[in-house]
Amino acid sequence: YGKNTIKFLRLHREGKKQFVKEVEVCAHLRLTSPQEYLEGNNCLVIPTDTIKNIVLVLAKKNGIPSLEEFAIDICNHFMTTFCQVAYVKTYVQEVPWQRLHEDGVPHIHSFICVPDGIRFCEAEQCRNGPLIVFAGIKDLKLMKTTQSGFEGFYKNEHTTLPERHDRILCGELFCKWSYGECKDFDFNCIWKKIRECILEAFAGPPDCGEYSPSYQKTVNCIQMLVLSRVSQVQVIEVVLNNTFYNVVDMKNLGLTNDKEV
């Protein structure tokens, strides 16, 4: 059991300049005894209101230097404070606020929410076991308007999809990776590096791109580039939910549509 959807915004000030971190936290616990389920005895149960308040107090006292460090703080607190907790799992995701710029000058206290992917992480631990940390990015929408195709696939009497050597490749990306046992990593730096790898592998060189024969090959290219450049990542999962765009036939409208609409 536990508490889901603990939402809050933490404001940090450095002189006149202000920083924000808005997150949503889920904290799940398993106790050493199932007596609250089997007997209705609640003496070991930590109320959800208490769980929520603990998360808020930790954000106040320790700040949120990174999502991963905050998730680790939550896990450590429940493990060291409550002897009845046998397992804890924490999920944290961030609202993508970015500092507003006016004529290239960063504003000291204004922000804009930019939907360029949501950062998240998970931390979990069993009593007397290692602390395991996962991180990722979701809802990242990507598109390339050429240098993509899909040909030579299996066909039978149910196949109506035509082969394409030039199409729009578009999808919503979900990526999650594991650090294994928790170490003293610069989680913010690693996350940014992985995001850069995702964009590079998807798009290819900026002046010419790189041909993608399938969504599957692009997914594998993303995974392999991350694993080759980021040694801290042990396991990586990538899902690219594709979005189809079909060329509109405008012959009846007296127009030639050369893949423009």
UniProtKB/TrEMBL annotation:
It is found in: Peroxisome. It is an enzyme of class 1 (oxidoreductase). O2 binds at T48, N242. Its EC number is 1.7.3.3. Pathway: Purine metabolism; urate degradation; (S)-allantoin from urate: step 1/3. 5-hydroxyisourate binds at T48, D49, F150, R167, Q216, N242. Its main location: other. Keywords: Oxidoreductase, Peroxisome, Purine metabolism. GO terms for biological process: purine nucleobase catabolic process; urate catabolic process. Urate binds at T48, D49, F150, R167, Q216, N242. It catalyses: urate + O2 + H2O = 5-hydroxyisourate + H2O2. GO terms for cellular component: peroxisome. Catalyzes the oxidation of uric acid to 5-hydroxyisourate, which is further processed to form (S)-allantoin. NCBIfam families: urate_oxi. Belongs to the uricase family. This is Uricase. It comes from Oxylabes madagascariensis (white-throated Oxylabes). The lineage of its organism: Eukaryota, Metazoa, Chordata, Craniata, Vertebrata.
